[in-house]
Specification:
This protein is an alpha+beta fold. It contains seven helices and eight strands.
């Protein structure tokens, strides 16, 4: 229809809340669970990107391979997006990047660069809206998860995370700790796929990260 905008590059939070019939508090839960990415619009922002390489057990280094000026949207990391939503603003130094990579503000001199992001600057990209809505539709169309015994109050999880931790324990006992955290994430993704289940990768990565850090802390306490 002439004069009607059918697609926008990104959407404000109020618009999305009305579209999905949710509150901003609901968005907070999706964000911290890693199920929804929030973005900020920037203009000519100097950004450094590169690889994350494990140089020692539990120690990682940034290997830059690109410095460029970004005009468009940058996805916030979940903790930063959560802080903007709950506190109203957050000083951001890095942004969400692909697995094994980083994206951060380009350093200028000795001072650590920061971008102050306020709640009113938050947006959700069109592609992220489409992805999230497709995930919600797939969840609605999937069979209801079997009821499991749950301690205390609350609904049962869609995925069997107890079985996930058992599988991780068996894996470490038999095969040992993988060389990298990313390899462990991929291993647990394959385990879910073999069960015909496909949790969000960011959820798996977050849970594996807890195990990886705990393992590194335990190793650090061992006698030299």
């Amino acid at each position: 229809m002439p004069g009607q905008v059918l697609r926008k590059p990104c959407y404000g939070l109020a618009e999305i809340c009305a579209r999905w019939a949710v509150s901003e508090a609901d968005l907070v839960h999706f964000v911290i669970a890693g199920e929804l990415a929030l973005s900020v619009v920037v203009v000519r922002l100097p950004v450094e990107e590169g690889l994350i390489e494990e140089v020692e057990q539990g120690r990682f280094a940034h290997l830059p391979d690109r410095v460029h000026s970004v005009t468009g949207t940058l996805d916030l990391r979940s903790p930063d997006a959560w802080e903007v939503l709950t506190a109203g603003r957050c000083a951001v130094r890095s942004f969400q990047a692909a697995e094994g990579r980083y994206r951060a503000l380009q350093a200028a001199g000795d001072a650590a660069p920061e971008l102050l992001v306020a709640r009113e600057r938050l947006v959700i990209r069109h592609d992220e809206v489409v992805r999230f809505e497709a995930a919600q539709a797939a969840y609605a169309a999937s069979p209801a998860p079997a009821m499991a015994e749950v301690k205390g109050r609350g609904a049962p999880s869609r995925y069997d995370w107890d079985a996930f931790w058992c599988e991780a324990a068996v894996l470490l006992q038999i095969e040992g700790m993988p060389a990298t955290q990313a390899a462990l994430v991929r291993r647990m993704e394959r385990w879910f796929a073999e069960r015909g289940e496909f949790p969000d990768q960011r959820t798996i990565k977050r849970k594996v990260g807890l195990l990886w850090r705990r393992h590194a802390e335990a190793l650090a306490r061992l006698p030299g």
